[in-house]
Amino acid sequence: MKRITFALCIIFISLSTMAQGTLQERLKGNPKIDSLVSKVAALGGSGQVSYYYDGKLHKTVSIFCSLMNDFEPTSPTGDPQRDERNQRIDSVWKERCEQGNRIYNIVRNTRKALTDEAKESYTWEYHRNGTDSVRYTIALGEYQSGDTMQTWQRQREVQYYGAPEIITFRYDPLANNDGSPLMSKGFGHFRYEYTPDSVWRQMKDLVPFNKAAYTALLQPILKQKGITSRQFYVYCDSTYTFEKESWDHNEKEFLIRENTISPRQPKSETRGTIYTINSKELADSVLSQLIRTTWTFLENNPDISFHFEPYAYYGIKAMNELFENLDYRRVMGFYHIYLHAMSNNEYNIVFLEGTGDMMIPMEWLILKSWKNGKVVYDKKRMKNLPPKQARSVTSFSRFTSTRQYEPID
């Protein structure tokens, strides 16, 4: 019996691996883009790679880059200790400047290589007195269904629609550049979108997200030795008045607030579960397991709306999203998984679900509950992490967004 069970497990794992490979193969896209992401990562940068399904499958890659002003070393002061310290600081800044320039050049070189393969492309550049403005748009391939590619243009901006691969790059100078060696000349954004299929699946034909089944697959991973968990709860109704938005983390009340519209909800609940790991080795292993399991789930549950970032990492001062259910047009609920790190000794995997507005208070790291502005803290967490510090270590990724609800019958 044990041999039969073991054999069945091997078959299941093999089939899951094959299925997982099938979905990933469909979403692979252009190898030059994967090479670009690898090269940028090797230089210390990052390419945000994500996959989503909203009636079509998509792979997107975003890379931000900058050109720095020419580096100038600090002039000698005559004080040996101060000069030695300045040299150490200069070496760091010089490396950052060179890193930014190398990433920018790799992005542009990739763009040039892809232009040679383009079905259609658009280029506009302006260079004068050290000031650059750049616009590139590239369309690659064509759909077998005979869809006609469309072009949209407004002044110097061109967009293509109806091609499997669309690449855009925009670089603009920094308006208040003072020439300082520590300041950027400008910033660029490279974006790649791969959409293997041309036909949209109607929203009414999509399969509802099976939260219970997905969560059940993840629970054995999250119950491993070395992982602790705790929960927090957020409740808000129409009796609460929101304060004016502020970008000062000492004043802002919410790290993330995802508002519902049409119809506006009179009552909102957010339930958060935080899984904490105090070992980088274990945290990396758990993340790898979550990613593999998610790929398998998506392969075995086609036609659900999702957003998945398998290259997400534990962000310092940021909550980086790993997975999101995009079924919000069908139901009022939400389901997100975020990654967060507090320095190098605490790694958090945060599950958020609920109805109405999704609200994450700034002090979520030490929060027990938040009800219409009344806060209750987790006393154990507060011993080592007072509210001000809790705000500080999560203050990077605060934002407000909206979620449209359109019930589908």
Would you kindly provide a brief summary of this structure?
By secondary structure, the chain is α+β, with helices and mostly antiparallel strands.
User: Could you describe the largest sheet, including whether it forms a barrel?
Assistant: 15 strands, mixed
Broad structural category: alpha+beta
Strand content: 35-45%
Q: What's the total number of strands?
A: 20
Report the radius of gyration as a whole number of Å: 24 Å
What letter string, H or E per element, gives the SSE order? HHEEHEEEEEEHEEEHEEEEEEEEHHE
- Our measurement of the CA-to-CA distance between the termini, rounded to an integer number of angstroms, reads 47 Å
Oligomer: single chain
| Count of discrete structural domains | 2
Shape: globular
Q: Which bin fits the share of residues in helices?
A: 25-40%
Q: Let me know the average pLDDT.
A: 86
Low-confidence stretches: 1-20
Number of helices: 7
